[in-house]
Amino acid sequence: MPVAIPDPTPAPNAPTGVTTPQPPAPPIEAPVAPPAPPPAPPAPPAPPKIELPSSDAAYLNNPRPTYPAISKRLGEQGKVVLRVLIGTDGLPQKVEINKSSGFDRLDRQAQDAVMRWRFVPGKRNGVPETMWNLVPVNFVLE
């Protein structure tokens, strides 16, 4: 009896032993997070709280300057503005004329009187500090 011999030729669309390599898949990149925003700059420090010196005569009992007798006779009057350096102890360290009354006698009398005054010292953030302050002194004939 005859035996069928298989044909060794592969079928037309049958896979052969050789495979074509697939191109490698592109690498999967982990998503990159956007860069973190820079930290906010620190808030600027609050401006220091400054309290100017005070010469409130009602509180400190500072004596009024004596009106020079000759200035009274001559009818001299005016306003002297003194620039006073007030120490942490409330005592004047230096007194300068910022604006003259126009009369040397009145200016000198005002300087002499203010050098004997006591002041509430100026403060920065609650701490006494040496500070300059303008102090007006009026000479008015009544």
Q: Would you spell out the secondary-structure blueprint of this structure?
A:
Blueprint (H helix, E strand, L loop, with lengths): L49 E2 L5 H4 L8 H6 L3 E9 L5 E8 L4 H12 L6 E3 L2 E3 L1 E9 L3
Antiparallel strand pairs: 1-4, 2-3, 2-6, 4-5
Textual characterization of the structure:
By secondary structure, the chain is of the alpha+beta class. The protein has a domain at 50-139: TolA/TonB C-terminal domain (2-Layer Sandwich), CATH 3.30.2420. It is built from three helices and six strands; from the N terminus they run E-H-H-E-E-H-E-E-E. The strands form two sheets. It has a three-stranded antiparallel sheet with strand order 1-4-5, with no helix packed on it. A hairpin with a 2-residue loop joins strand 4 (122-124) and strand 5 (127-129). The longest helix has 12 residues, at 104-115. The protein starts with 49 loop residues before the first strand and ends with a strand. GO terms for molecular function: energy transducer activity. Belongs to the TonB family.
